[in-house]
Amino acid sequence: MTTPQLPLNFRFPPRTRLAHFLPGDNAVALASVRQLLVDTGEFAGVLLAGPAGSGKTHLASSAVQEANTAQYLPLRSLGAQALPALEAALTTGLVVIDDVDAIAGRRAEEIALFDLFNRAKSDRARLLVTSAELPSRLAIHLPDLVSRLSSLVQHRLRLLPEFEVRAVLVDRARERGLDLSGEVLDFLMRRFPRDLGALISIVDQLDVASMAAQRRLTVPFIRRVIESVKT
Amino acid sequence: MQNLWDRCLSRLDAEFSEQDILTWLKPLQVREEPGVLRLLAPNAFVLESVRERFLERIQEIGAFLAEGPLDVRLEVGSLNKPKPPPPPRANGRAEPAPVVHDDFESNLDSHYTFDNFVEGKSNQLGHAAAFQVAMNPGRRESNPLLLYGGTGLGKTHLMYAAGNLMRRNRPGFRVLYQRSEQFVSDMIKALNAKNMDDFKSRYRNVDALLIDDIQFFAGKDRTQEEFFHTFNALFESNQQIILTCDRYPKEVENMEPRLTSRLGWGLPVAIEPPDFETRAAILLRKAEQKGLKLTEEVAFMIARRMRSHVRDLEGALNTLSARAHFTGRLVTIEFAQEALRDLLTVQERALSIPNIQKMVADYSQLRVADLLSKRRTRHLARARQMAMALTKELTTHSLPEIGDAFGGRDHTTVLHACRLIAELRETDGKTREDWDKLIRALTSG
Question: Which one of A130, B59, B336, B430 has the largest count of C-beta atoms within 10 Å of its C-beta?
Answer without folding.
Answer: A130
